[in-house]
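Input chain follows. Return structure tokens only.
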Amino acid sequence: MEKRYLHSPDLTARNVERIAELFPSVVVEAHDADGSVTASVDFDLLRQELSDHIVEGPQERYQLDWPGKRAATFAANAPIAKTLRPMREESVNFDTTKNLFIEGDNLDALKLLQESYLGKVKMIYIDPPYNTGGDAFVYPDDYSRTNEEYLAFSGQIGESGVRLESNSESNGRFHSDWLTMMYPRLKLARNLLTEDGVIFVSIDDNESGPLKSMLDEIFGASNFLTTVVWQKVYSPMNSATQFASVHDYIHVYARSGTRWESNLLPRTAEQDQAYKNPDNDSRGRWKAENATAAAGHATPSQFYALTTPAGNVFTPPPGRAWLYTEPRYQEMVRDNRVWFGESGQGRPAIKRFMSEVKQGRVAQTLWPYTEVGHNQDAKKELLARINFGASDVVFSTPKPTKLIRRMLHLATNPQSEDIVLDFFAGSGTTADAVIQQNLHDGGNRRFILVQLDEPMGAPEGSFPTISSLAMERVRRAGQISTDGVMTAEAFDVGFRALRVDTSSKIDVLRPAETSTQGLLALLETSIKADRTGEDLLLQVLLDWGLEPTVPIASEDIDGCEVFAVDDDALLACFAETVTPAVVMALAVREPLRVVFRDDAFESDAARINAEQIFKEISPSTEVRTI
């Protein structure tokens, strides 16, 4: 049986494999920190492979750079020995929902989701913490530096401690910390997008420029779609000394700019009011449009004297030409597509039927609050869901659900189970918006939220952390949306709550010199004592690249707890002792995969016997142990 080690994927190793497929000559053998031989990339050879001339050394190039970028790149690729553990009591409809709420650091969460949701997320929206020049970020990446550390790291202080530059880069470290925090998260997020997926990132003036440069690098400048300006306030503050800030930006990038297509927004009442049907045309409402065009690119056949059915003669005005040639015009007259006014004697106009124009409008880059809401709307929405006392200081800049619903309308298909990800979930606005939009158009979109268990910004006994508040908001959004409208069975308003935690596996690797007899006795089992079978199952799902929202059923077989995942696609038994009867009962069900604890078999012979049972009864089953 092959043993699973239950680590998140090693993205560095995966990238090396991809480079090796393209340029085998640049991958060489090297020794790692433990002295083991491993594959490594010779970057000098790789630079040569990618150049049409001899590369003598590093070349200057246009790019965004800052102290800590290399550490951020490494952080995105480095594997972690962590897992997601279920929180049933915090969940809603745990066994049936396809929505996720993950509590923990979003860098860890994004790594743990890499295999399960690779290329599956249709839309990402994030509202990251804006950089206000604070001394540290909540996200525990160990990237935050003191001013002295930053100056030394960025080369502004020499070994003697003397400043090498006369001008102080007073805010440099704050920009660097923020960029270093964002970079690995955005890199990992890109992997999760579908080929026709899109990401929306809210930001203010402080980091809009650097963020766009970073997004250009990660997603590719050719995949930049637009920067939306959102009018976030309706009552500008007159206390501003220079300019009153009334907007935020939303940078929009596609995974593939050539693959992404925007849905149209609904037509406005003003647009439809222009369409009438004064002659009771059977083709419906229409509006009269100019029958002439600018003469600049017209052909000679578009200049002629036009005689109407009433006998009136018209020629194009100076600098204009008829829109159509005369034969085409006569054909349109016969088809009742030309309007001559109520009297039938007016200058001809073309009838443009409503059914023949776009049944919607293309989104513009300015989103006024009259269409998508403002910050005060967002606060009122939050208070409608959550009744807490210190509301004025807990969330000062929430986003309205109408803003995110606009994005959902443009970027998702109601009936395709599109997955929407927000890994800076905050108060849970994105999930609230998904539930509302599904209710509005009968959709089946799914959401994944990730929020750090960060303490609340103000004393609030009911909600010790922002993640606990966000989960409660999502619960109440589901209750309000389904009350008297449709049942929860027909409309998924639940979520499976999981939290980021250390791996369920004990680290049993020890140097020989530290492996005492007493320590070896403690390492007889490789599973942590506080982990349940469901804990182990979730880690196996992630390790196998299965979605952690797959249906799970539990049953008892010969006194052992057995999990059946997705109609027996996977059977798992993590009992400390597995009998031949249990093995036989699982084999006859012919699952695609089956997994046991490595120490559940009393001997090597028992393990080999289990393998033989599956080979004889269900040879296509993949048998693994942890």
